[in-house]
Structure formats: C-alpha cells, structure tokens
C-alpha cells in the first residue's frame, strides 16, 4: 500500500486530494501546527495520520515523512517573503529524499512560458512576479532532485476563489455590492478549476507514477469568461451580479500595492497556455463551475447570505 505525505492537507488542494487517496486505499500523512484544530481532527477521524509541526521544522517533517513513498508538494506563497516557498520546498525535498520517497507531485500553476505572456513584466508586477518566479524555481528543484518519479500539476484559477473566505480578498465588493471590479478585459477567458479535479489528478498520479513521470499536467475544468462566471454564480445565488472592467490607467496606479490586480493582469492570456484536449486526454473526470456550486451549495448560501 502506498503512503503519501500531503502538504497543506487542511487547505484547498490537500483537502481535495485526501478523499481520493483514501478511497483508493492510499495512506496519507500530514502535519498540522495545531493537531487539535477542527480540520486536523476531521482528517484524523477520516484516517489520515496527523503529526504536529510545520514546514519550517525539519524534525517534524522527517517524522511525518518516514515510511512515505510519495510526496504531494503544495505550498502557500508568502506575501511578505517571496523566498519562503522555495526555502520550504528545498527543505521538504531534501528530507523526502533522505527518507526514501520515490515520487514527488508538485502542484504549481500555469507558469510555463512566462516570458511569452503579453503582460509579463517583472519590474511592473512586483510581488506577483516574485511569487511566480519562486514557483518556477521550485519546479526546477523538483525536476533536478533525483527522485525516481516526479510530476508537475498546473491547475488553473480556483473556482473556490468565488466563495468565502477567498472571495473577500480576491474579488472585494462582489459579495457586498454584487460587483466584481477586475483587471481582466471583456475578451479574457479564464481557465477555471474545481479543486476536486486537482484531487482527482493528484490521486491518479500516485496510482500511476510511471504514466505521470516527468509530465507537466494542465488541470482545467472549464474555460469561462468572467461575465459567464457571474451569470452562473447569479443563478446559484439568486442575486444580480455584474462585472466592472478597470481602465488601464486605474490598473497601472494600483499595480504596486495590489497583487491580486497584478495577478489578473498577467493572467489575461493564461488560457492560451492550456489545451482542453490535452486535459481530457488523461481520462481523468473533470467538473464544471455549475457542478462545483451545486456541491458547495451550503457555502454558496453562507457566502452570499441567500
């Protein structure tokens, strides 16, 4: 039986992966700063082995990864220290190699060919550029670490960003005023992903390491324009929702202080770097935005007070 160490098991991606692992009889280990938290206890009751610790604690990582054959590497970028993600990744990869992990699965993003992006300008994008370059450095660390197998997952824009708690940071004003103000354009189409699909692909990679070896896998559920996203969300909430597109002058004035706008700017042409035919060719089921909202209907009600 395979055993995998899951980074971020209490978060969006790790939390989506865990059920698919357990349903396939794959054992999961994870660490939590507070093993008595509600989420950690829920994982433990589901069968996950929870260890106290953090990604900065080599000793707890070593204990938690002992006997693991695979690693799901999934790290949150820091908005104050862009070097943190790479530092943590190097520590985790080093210990994983030491304890005998055979397969590393890194969940990154649609970061390929950054220099070909129309709006890629590290000097203007500031922190967002630092974060994306750090993730790219982690990818290279994974490729060159010498594991028997490695896989890089490239998920698109999370559907969960339109629900609490993320919507309040990603799209301020959407819940309160029914208006999303954006650096996207009316022509922008967004490669969206149901986090559950990340879990499906992650579990598939664990089950078939040879098939997924050295593969960089785009994971997109649907490609949608923002107005279409608002239309589907409005149907689910019963509220009138609309999009306001920012003028380029407004965007330029806020780039230095608003990393979420900077992220939207560089993502305007993100759909050009993923092919849905390639996603479907893996044979892994993928969802839809309306299906995601139906599954999360209680959170939809809670978020939009409907």
Features:
306 residues, alpha/beta, Rossmann fold, seven-stranded parallel beta sheet, three-stranded mixed beta sheet, 16 helices, 12 strands, 46% helix, globular, NADP, NmrA-like domain-containing protein, NAD(P)-bd_dom_sf
Instruction: Kindly report the CATH topology.
Output: Rossmann fold
- Radius of gyration from the CA trace? 19 Å
* Topology pattern, helix = H, strand = E: EHEHEHEHEHHEEHHEEHHEEHEHHHHH
Q: Give the number of helices.
A: 16
- The helical percent reads 40-55%
| Class based on secondary structure composition and strand pairing | alpha/beta
Q: What distance lies between the first and last C-alpha atoms, to the nearest angstrom?
A: 44 Å
Describe the structure.
The chain is α/β, with parallel strands linked by helices. The protein has a single domain, classed as 3-Layer(aba) Sandwich (Rossmann fold), CATH 3.40.50. Helices cover 46% and strands 18% of the residues. It has helices at residues 12-23, 38-46, 58-65, 84-99, 122-125, 127-144, 167-170, 174-177, 195-207, 209-212, 226-237, 248-254, 259-266, 276-281, 289-295, 297-304, and strands at 3-6, 27-32, 49-52, 70-73, 103-107, 149-155, 157-158, 179-182, 189-193, 215-219, 222-225, 242-245. The strands form 3 sheets. The protein has a 7-stranded parallel β-sheet, sandwiched between helices. It is globular, with a radius of gyration of 19 Å. The termini are far apart. The model has no long low-confidence stretch (mean pLDDT 97). InterPro entries: NAD(P)-bd_dom_sf (IPR036291), NmrA-like (IPR008030), NmrA-like_oxidored (IPR051164). It holds the Pfam family NmrA. GO terms for molecular function: oxidoreductase activity.
């Amino acid at each position: 039986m395979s055993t995998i160490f899951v980074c971020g098991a209490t978060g969006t991606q790790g939390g989506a992966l865990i059920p698919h692992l357990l349903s396939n009889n794959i054992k999961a280990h994870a660490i939590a700063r507070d093993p008595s938290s509600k989420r950690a206890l829920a994982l433990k009751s589901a069968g996950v082995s929870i260890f106290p610790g953090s990604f900065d604690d080599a000793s707890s990582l070593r204990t938690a990864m002992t006997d693991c054959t695979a690693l799901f590497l999934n790290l949150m970028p820091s908005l104050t220290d862009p070097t943190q993600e790479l530092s943590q990744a190097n520590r985790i990869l080093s210990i994983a190699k030491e304890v005998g992990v055979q397969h590393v699965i890194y969940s990154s993003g649609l970061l390929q060919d950054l220099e070909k992006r129309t709006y890629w300008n590290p000097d203007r994008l500031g922190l967002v550029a630092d974060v994306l370059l750090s993730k790219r450095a982690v990818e290279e660390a994974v490729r060159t670490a010498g594991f028997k197998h490695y896989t890089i997952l490239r998920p698109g824009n999370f559907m969960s960003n339109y629900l609490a708690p993320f919507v309040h940071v990603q799209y301020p004003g959407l819940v309160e005023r029914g208006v999303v103000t954006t650096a996207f354009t009316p022509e922008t189409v967004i490669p969206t992903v149901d986090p559950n699909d990340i879990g499906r692909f992650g579990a598939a990679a664990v089950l078939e390491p040879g098939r997924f070896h050295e593969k960089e896998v785009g994971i997109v559920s649907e490609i949608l324009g923002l107005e279409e996203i608002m239309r589907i969300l409005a149907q689910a909430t019963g509220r009138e929702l609309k999009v306001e597109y920012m003028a380029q002058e407004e965007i330029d004035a806020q780039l230095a202080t608003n990393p979420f706008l900077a992220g939207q700017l560089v993502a305007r042409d993100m759909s050009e770097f993923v092919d849905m035919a390639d996603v479907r060719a893996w044979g892994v089921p993928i969802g839809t935005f309306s299906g995601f909202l139906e599954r999360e209907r209680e959170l939809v009600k809670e978020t939009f007070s409907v």
